[in-house]
Amino acid sequence: MKRGSCSKTILTALAMLLVGSPCTYAQSSRLWVVTGDNVAAAAQRSLASRQSVADDLVVPTFQVINRMSVADIAERDLDNFSNWMHSACPHCGGFTVHASREAALKEVDNPAYKPGFRYLAPLPETLDQQSTVSRALDRVKGDKILSTITMLQGFGTRHFQTHKGQEAAEFVRREWASLGQERPDFTVALLSHDWVQNSVIGTIRGASRPNEVVVIGAHIDSINSRNKENAKENAPGADDDASGVAVVTEALRVLMETGFKPQRTIQFMAYSAEEVGLLGSANIADSYATESKEGPQVIAVLQFDMTGFIPSRDARDIYLVNDYTSPELNGFLTKLLKEYNHSGAHAITHGETKCGYACSDHASWTRNGIRAAFPFEAPLGGSNPHIHTSEDVVSKLDATKAARFAKLAIEFLIETTKGVDGRESYRN
Ligand SMILES: [Zn+2]
């Protein structure tokens, strides 16, 4: 997504990440949204049933191109459009937002979605951190994850245009800062956007290959699209997506507790404004994508969005999303699950599922030609039915399930950044 120009070189981006700086967009009255082609069909259905979306929002007219749908809406209708999509098409994935028709059409024809797309930075081939990984896995605690979810749910809402949403971002910054306070190689900062809620980015600077970056992330905002009066209110968002932020926080906590020192740079991200077009993650991923080959390269990105709900049927622990993600990175995750989770105390069962275009923040990285993956809680259609309502609360979630996502996150970070267990190397 680009509204007005907001690209900056990654070095300044990284610098800005460390200090936090506003990213301003040109205010334009019309925006172009890109969605999966199933949304155009949902729009037709809404139109046919004469069901208007909301008083002041007419269902947009979509043009279907390359199995995607393109439409323009008024900028002020972004929230309403998001509510319509969530209610009229809950399993249609999400949408991206563009400043012009040209930019939207460029997205529809994006080479990163074509089979055989080649990523710039190489992915490590061997798994060789067994002792470090198994020591770390023993330290994962489900109750820590539940307590983070409970704290985030306690804000009542984390909508991207509310002060409560910003307070939640500041809470996460404080939590991460306290987890890494002993470490001079760790920094955490708020990244401001042209809306109320900031994103949060924590960074462990790589010891020998700082220009190679591995990211894990989740979104910090929440929404209650069932609440027609005001989608900003009463949006606890426990599973969507406090559970993802809690998994990222637990991975950070365990790496700090074990004194893990990565060779490559690790970034922990809590994105703002995912519910209304992946705005926060798009802002960040775009900044990385504009970087030259000499600058920091993002090797791989893992997204956590909904990790705590046990589906009623075919209840495996983790489902690797296989559309709009990197097949190579899904292969790497499968290798990790075989190596570390085939049985015993850290056993994890897994399968695959589809999720639809732009269904979470991994899509902002995929769109920019950066390999990303998204382990999800359920097969398509079997996920938490309470999301985007006041019923998405922690009492409906399972800590052991969410802890399994934290274990996969830790295996992924240790094996892609190749640290040694820091106690020896770091402390002496
Ligand atoms: Zn979500």
Write out key terms for the chains shown:
4-stranded antiparallel β-sheet, Alpha-Beta Plaits, disordered N terminus, single chain, disordered C terminus, globular, 6-stranded mixed β-sheet, 2 domains, alpha/beta, binds zinc ion, Aminopeptidase, 428 residues
| CATH homologous superfamily annotation of the largest domain | Zn peptidases
Strand content: 15-25%
User: What is the CATH fold-level name of the largest domain?
Assistant: Aminopeptidase
Sheet of most strands: 6 strands, mixed
Mean pLDDT: 87
Global shape: globular
Number of domains: 2
* Helix/strand class: alpha/beta
CATH C-level class of the largest domain is: Alpha Beta
Explain what the structure shows:
The chain is of the alpha/beta class. The chain has two domains: 25-112, Alpha-Beta Plaits (2-Layer Sandwich); 130-425, Aminopeptidase (3-Layer(aba) Sandwich). The chain has helices spanning 10-19, 37-48, 78-88, 101-108, 130-137, 142-153, 163-179, 238-257, 279-289, 327-340, 362-367, 399-417, 422-427; strands spanning 30-36, 63-65, 68-74, 95-98, 186-191, 199-204, 209-219, 264-271, 297-303, 318-321, 350-353, 372-373, 375-376. The chain has a six-stranded mixed sheet with strand order 5-6-8-7-9-12, with helices on both faces. Strands 2-3-1-4 form a four-stranded antiparallel sheet, sandwiched between helices. Strands 11-10-13 form a three-stranded mixed sheet, with helices on one face. Helix 8 packs across helix 12. The radius of gyration is 20 Å and the shape is globular. The chain binds zinc ion (ZN). Residues 219, 240-241, 274, 305, 360 line the site of zinc ion. Zinc ion binds at residues 219, 240-241, 274, 305, 360.
